[in-house]
Write a structure and sequence with these properties.
Blueprint (H helix, E strand, L loop, with lengths): L2 E5 H4 E4 L9 E4 L3 H10 L3 E5 L5 H6 L4 E3 L10 E5 L2 H5 L6 E6 L15 E3 L2 H14 L3
Parallel strand pairs: 1-4, 1-6, 4-5, 6-7, 7-8
Antiparallel strand pairs: 2-3
Helix pairs in contact: 2-5
């Protein structure tokens, strides 16, 4: 079975405190529950890498799994969806495919990230995963 790990920045937005005295709160990305439902409808396990998520996500997606960090030995055919290029530069286990959401930022000719796919947003990342699962092109 395929597992998709979603890094917090791929599904939540930081909402700054009005007086900027407290850390930002995290709110769901618009449409993120629908995108996660697309994955779960075809039998893909979805896990968010975050210590906690807003209550409205827990209500909308009661079977969602949370972990505080990416497992050192994730299941084969797993995906990591992230907005942080540093995740893609780290050594990763065999069988873990990565998708970076957002533009690549390069400084000079050296490629700055080593993600398998770059997607414009969560919707495009989900479409890539579903397409590759259906076509068997992982």
């Amino acid at each position: 079975m395929t597992t998709v790990f979603l890094e917090r920045g791929a599904v939540l937005l930081a909402q700054p405190d009005e007086q900027r005295r407290r850390p930002p709160s995290w709110v769901p990305l618009p449409g993120m529950t629908e995108q996660i439902e697309h994955l779960t409808e075809v039998g893909i396990d979805v896990t968010i890498i975050a210590a906690e998520v807003p209550d409205q996500i827990r209500v909308a997606l009661p079977t969602l799994t949370l972990v505080e960090e990416l497992p050192s030995n994730p299941p084969a055919d797993s995906w990591l969806v992230t907005t942080d290029p540093a995740w893609c530069e780290r050594p990763r286990p065999a069988g873990l495919h990565t998708i970076l959401i957002g533009p690549r930022k390069t400084q000079g000719p050296r490629r700055s990230t080593y993600c398998d796919i770059v997607a414009r947003d969560l919707s495009a990342a989900v479409m890539d995963i579903l397409t590759r699962q259906a076509m068997g092109t992982i």
